[in-house]
Amino acid sequence: MNNRVLFLFIIALVSISCTAQKTFTILGTLSGGEYDGQKVYLQMLDSTWDTRELITVDTTTIANGKFTFKGIAGNRPAIHYIQLLNPPQFMSEPVFFALEPGTIKIDIDSIPVIGGTPVNKDYNKYAVAEAQFTKDIVALYDQLSKDKTNTQLREEVEKREWEGAIKIRKERVRFIKANIGNQVGAYTFIYYFGTFSPEEQNKFMAKINPEYKSIPEVQEKVNMLNAMN
């Protein structure tokens, strides 16, 4: 094998390796069986990050409670969604996840469980904790509404709400700190922008990928910080 052929062979191997590393597979489950035959949409944010204008990039059909998507992932984890044509009542919003290389597992339920890849595992740890906390607090307040004179219960609810909120905030800060360089972390930071101190806002904004600074929602926060600083 001469040098030129060897060089082209190596280039081909590198190209195949890089492509393989960037592929993704989404394995979704929706237990029951009543959703079989229904259309499932893989969607992404538009260029303005407006969740009201999600862009459909692929479509498949549920069979035996499962669905699959395959494709090529981008250079950085990006926000995508799973939406059904006629979603179950508990699925009030499209399922949020990070599209990244690897096998992504999405179990759709009242609290979606997402995993299989690094950012999704990290996000799921935070998101499930927040969803469960919200569900528990709503149930406690519902119980309190039926027993309004129970001051001991009210104090317990308020205590658990306060302690839970602090715990969830710490988990959110941890997730954003680890992912501020990708779209998932940046979007989460912008979404919860008002919950952070000025020091945290400046710190995170400085680490946002420059290409996101032109997004209207991000630019608005940049202008707010500039005026405040």
Describe the structure in your own words.
It is flat, with a radius of gyration of 22 Å. It has six helices and eight strands; from the N terminus they run αββββββββααααα. It has two domains: about 20-115, Immunoglobulin-like; about 120-229, no CATH class. Strands 4-1-7-8 form a four-stranded mixed beta sheet. Strands 3-2-5-6 form a four-stranded antiparallel beta sheet. Helices cover about 45% and strands about 20% of the residues. Helix 2 packs antiparallel against helix 3 (about 150-180) and helix 3 (about 150-180) packs antiparallel against helix 4. A hairpin with a 5-residue loop joins strand 7 (about 100-105) and strand 8 (about 115). The model is unreliable at about 5-20 (pLDDT under 50). It is of the alpha+beta class and about 230 residues long.
